[in-house]
Amino acid sequence: MNEPVPIIAIDGPSASGKGTVAQIVAQKLGFHFLDSGSLYRLVALTAINAGCALDDEITIAEKAKSLDVKFEQGKILLTGEDVTETIRQERIGTSASKISALPKVRDALTQRQRDFAKAPGLVADGRDMGSVIFPTAQTKIFLTASAEVRAERRYKQLITKGNSANLDDILKDIRDRDVRDSSRAVAPLKQQADALLLDTSDMTIETAVQFVLDAYLGK
Ligand SMILES: Nc1ncnc2c1ncn2[C@@H]1O[C@H](COP(=O)(O)OP(=O)(O)O)[C@@H](O)[C@H]1O
Ligand SMILES: Nc1ccn([C@H]2C[C@H](O)[C@@H](COP(=O)(O)OP(=O)(O)O)O2)c(=O)n1
């Protein structure tokens, strides 16, 4: 059993700003941070590198169980190799969305995610942080924005990093991923009854961060 520590669970769709907001909130509170999507992305990259079919549940679940990953000072090392940028590619996001629908793959990652819950606290972002991984989290946020705004954000993010990107393709990818992540049988993306809705379509990052801090501090 993990010790009970304060947990802020932030779930929501692709490119809504979950990771950005979660990371800043974690810094401000001095809490640990879990980017659960990165684990699904790492499993997807491992499966692709091994030439696995993305519906080969048993093989991919085994790879998920034995994932050799280190999070070090903002870098993500997969079997010693720096894959921080590689796993952010949209094709890896799409593959992560596919393998994340496989129940055995999700099971294989459950304990690894719960192990991030250490004192003094944790901010975790993903799709099922408040529903499945940390159902007793004190603060649950469903962070979203319109698909168009999210596509713009992802587009700017990719261009800023020097990648080529096409806004229409990104919008289509985001819509496809929304449907896949929300309609799967296991741990679908859905606002939980006990999660606060935070629509950031017309909101700055600073205001979104303050909303989460206020929710946690009971203001
Ligand atoms: N409220 C906001 N207003 C404007 N841009 C934002 C906002 N929130 C996040 N962003 C930007 O949108 C992009 C995607 O955010 P990210 O945190 O990676 O999303 P997610 O983790 O939900 O996929 C980033 O470049 C981030 O700086
Ligand atoms: N807790 C989680 C986190 C991510 N996933 C899946 C579904 C998502 O489409 C992929 C990639 O997640 P990630 O949060 O990295 O994606 P975005 O940055 O939001 O585009 O992984 C999940 O099923 N459960």
From TrEMBL:
Annotated CDD domains: CMPK (cd02020)
Record-annotated residues binding ATP? Answer: G12, P13, S14, A15, S16, G17, K18, G19, T20
Q: In the UniProt record, does the keyword Transmembrane occur?
A: no
Q: What InterPro entries would the database entry show?
A: Cytidylate_kin, Cytidylate_kinase_dom, P-loop_NTPase
Q: Does the keyword Nucleotide-binding apply?
A: yes
Q: Domain Cytidylate kinase spans what residues? A: 8-214
The organism's place on the tree of life at top rank:
Bacteria
Family the UniProt entry places it in:
Belongs to the cytidylate kinase family. Type 1 subfamily.
Q: Which HAMAP family does the record associate with it?
A: Cytidyl_kinase_type1
- This chain's protein is named Cytidylate kinase
